[in-house]
Write a structure and sequence with these properties.
- The protein has about 180 residues and is mostly beta strands.
- It has one domain: SH3 type barrels (Roll).
- It has three helices and ten strands.
- It has a ten-stranded antiparallel beta sheet with strand order 4-3-2-1-5-9-8-7-6-10.
- Strand 6 (about 100-105) and strand 7 form a beta hairpin.
- The chain is globular, with a radius of gyration of 16 Å.
- About 30% of the residues are buried.
């Protein structure tokens, strides 16, 4: 196997697919988890020491594997243990710009997320959904809940969500009081 000059570090993470929650470790490069998830040269990734649970039974472990491979496009979200695990600020934010923090709600077919989106400039749904080439976008101080299984709730300093899986995105400040 050829040697590379890229330094990798082992990071713990939660991976959420349409039917499974996978808890394990990944070898992340210097660009962090966001760099790995948005790497367009590969559609797959390895998770080490993986523990699998079906979404409809989130507390029941259905398998443990030394290594599993995941298809990135089928991952809805990646929960991280630390904000720093996302990656360097320039990579996570897409450059060195002044960032505005937006409290948002994101829904997919399976999950609901709430947290803080750090975005340069004005909040614009179309721009957030199509600007750049990255599929995974960081949401900070985030909470993820499975729509049909509300007992599956993950609170994390950072969650990367797959914008290709998004059904809606709304500002929490636009929510009407009931």
């Amino acid at each position: 196997m050829p040697e590379t000059n890229v330094t990798h570090r082992m990071l713990a993470a939660d991976f959420l697919t349409p039917s499974y929650r996978i808890v394990g470790k990944i070898m992340a490069p210097n660009s962090g988890v966001i760099g790995m998830m948005n790497d367009t040269t590969t559609s797959f990734m390895e998770v080490l020491d993986a523990k699998l649970a079906r979404l409809h039974m989130p507390t029941k472990l259905v398998g443990e594997y030394n290594v599993i491979d995941l298809v990135k496009t089928n991952i809805f979200a990646v929960g991280l243990m630390r904000r720093e695990d996302v990656g360097p600020q320039a990579v996570a934010r897409g450059g060195f710009q002044h960032m505005v923090k937006y409290a948002i709600r994101v829904t997919t077919q399976v999950y609901e997320l709430e947290g803080t989106l750090e975005w340069s400039g004005r909040f614009d749904f179309a721009t957030i959904m199509v600007e750049g080439i990255r599929d995974f976008v960081p949401l900070y101080d985030a909470t993820l809940t499975a729509i049909m299984i509300p007992q599956l709730r993950i609170e994390s300093p950072a969650i990367l969500f797959n914008r290709g899986q998004v059904d809606l995105l709304a500002l929490l400040s636009d929510k009407k009081e009931s």
